[in-house]
Design brief:
Layout: H1 2-18, H2 21-28, H3 37-55, H4 62-86, H5 91-115, H6 117-145, H7 154-179, H8 183-209, H9 219-232
Helix pairs in contact: 1-3, 1-8, 2-3, 2-8, 3-4, 4-5, 4-6, 5-6, 6-7, 7-8
Length: 234
């Protein structure tokens, strides 16, 4: 039992630290201003900071821990829906993502006002995970099947796969934390979730590392070619 507990804590710590890895790769690759990867790198950094806060033991009261966990899970869902809207470059999908984000924000706020946060958050988090997964599926399918001018590189698709894997495994954590509450199974589901975090952030690092930046046109070289052409036609 003690060995399993130690292994669980080790994996939990590694998962919390791995959240910061995509930002490290982003800085190393000098892509900090990238309009797509920077958003998700900072999202994972935020998640890592929250997880380290929980691991630090700063909050020990079970009631406060449960409340903070609910607040983080709600914020996480809202933030990811915003990022999926913010980073999309296809007008049709971006519009739909905007409607989903606005609808989720409005309905979740209404639910909290009517039922109270602790009661409403059980449904809100489940709805957020479902919406995120459906949007990720829709985005990936569109990119893989579309023949329009909008296309996406394999690195961006890899990051979407990473997010899908992360939120897909979080279904088990949600089910055993909010619906079928079972402390023994809950520990195993959290272990699975932390392993999925390590895998998904690793995939995110690969996505950023293998992203091919478009080189800006070289004005001097272009001008030299223009002058050569002018000479030929003198």
């Amino acid at each position: 039992m003690k060995e399993n507990f130690t292994i669980h804590n080790l994996i939990t710590f590694i998962a919390a630290v791995s959240f910061f890895a995509p930002l490290g790769v982003l800085l190393y690759k000098k892509l900090i201003k990238h309009p797509f990867f920077s958003w998700f790198a900072f999202y994972w950094t935020f998640c890592g900071a929250v997880n380290l806060l929980f691991l630090s033991g700063w909050v020990t009261e079970p009631a406060y821990l449960a409340l903070l966990s609910d607040v983080f899970n709600y914020t996480d869902g809202l933030l990811m829906l915003f990022l999926l809207y913010k980073t999309l470059d296809i007008p049709k999908l971006r519009r739909r993502a905007g409607y989903i984000l606005a609808g989720f924000a409005a309905l979740s706020t209404a639910g909290i006002l009517i039922r109270g946060f602790r009661e409403a958050v059980v449904v809100i988090i489940g709805v957020a995970v479902a919406l995120i997964l459906l949007q990720l599926i829709s985005i990936v399918v569109h990119y893989l099947t579309s023949t329009s001018k909008y296309h996406v590189g394999s690195s961006r698709l890899l990051l979407y796969y990473a997010l899908f894997f992360e939120y897909g495994t979080s279904i088990f954590t949600y089910m055993f934390s909010y619906v079928f509450i079972n402390m023994n199974v809950m520990q195993d589901s959290f272990l699975l979730y932390h392993v999925s975090i390590i895998i998904s952030t690793t995939l995110g690092c690969f996505a950023i590392a293998f992203n091919k930046r478009k080189s800006p046109p070289r004005r001097k070289q272009t001008r030299a070619i223009e002058q050569e052409v002018e000479i030929q036609f003198l």
